[in-house]
Design a protein that fits this description.
Elements lengths: L7 H45 L5 E2 L4 E5 L2 E9 L5 E13 L2 E10 L4 E9 L9 H4 L31 H20 L5
Antiparallel strand pairs: 1-3, 2-3, 3-4, 4-5, 5-6
């Protein structure tokens, strides 16, 4: 193979060829992985809904969606085989985290008590705010929110122990839980 003469024109041609190859490779990988990633997100969401609700037979075909600016909630109401309401799973997104977006699903029973929660997405600081996935389930001090009713116990760092050195992340998480409860209580089916 003949060596190219080192001049500006040849450098631009070689660099352009490398750039086009890299762009093509990235586009190909994106196209190839786009669908499996979307399916994995849906599976993660469905699994989270199943794990945060009490035993149920079916949920509403479509969630009740509420959007305010960049924050949103999706309420999935669950029923038993006799079509009696047993609780709701509420997916909520807030952008008030230390590093922005926090997306969680919170399950409530028919009395409004928190059954469980699952963090779907967060970009908080590893070792600090990222602990939210387990911190608020720990039966230590006032950390555990499971079993609490946000109508009785306000979801604030005054009532629930914040993650050590991660107050902003804790406030975002607890605010998201409160938003989830507000959506739950606004969408309880009439008896």
């Amino acid at each position: 193979m003949a060596k190219l003469k080192s001049n500006f024109k040849n450098m631009v041609l070689v660099l352009s060829a490398i750039t086009m190859f890299a762009a093509f490779a990235l586009a190909s990988v994106y196209t190839y992985t786009k669908e499996p990633i979307a399916q994995a997100k849906i599976a993660k969401q469905q699994n989270a809904i199943k794990n945060v609700l009490p035993p149920y037979d079916h949920i509403d075909a479509e969630p009740i969606v509420k959007t305010e600016g960049q924050e949103s909630t999706k309420t999935y109401r669950a029923y038993d085989k006799d079509n009696q309401f047993v609780g709701s799973a509420v997916e909520t997104v807030t952008v008030r985290g230390y590093n922005g977006r926090v997306n969680i699903i919170v399950g409530f029973d028919k009395e409004g008590k928190i059954i469980d929660y699952f963090v779907l997405e967060q970009n908080e600081t590893p070792g600090l705010g990222a602990k939210m996935g387990e911190w608020f389930k720990t039966p230590k001090g006032k950390q555990n929110i499971k079993g609490l009713n946000p109508a009785v116990t306000s979801m604030t760092v005054k009532n629930v122990d914040a993650i050590t050195a991660a107050t902003i992340s804790s406030k975002a998480f607890l605010g998201a839980v409160q938003n989830a409860y507000d959506s739950y209580s606004a969408n309880v089916p009439e008896k």
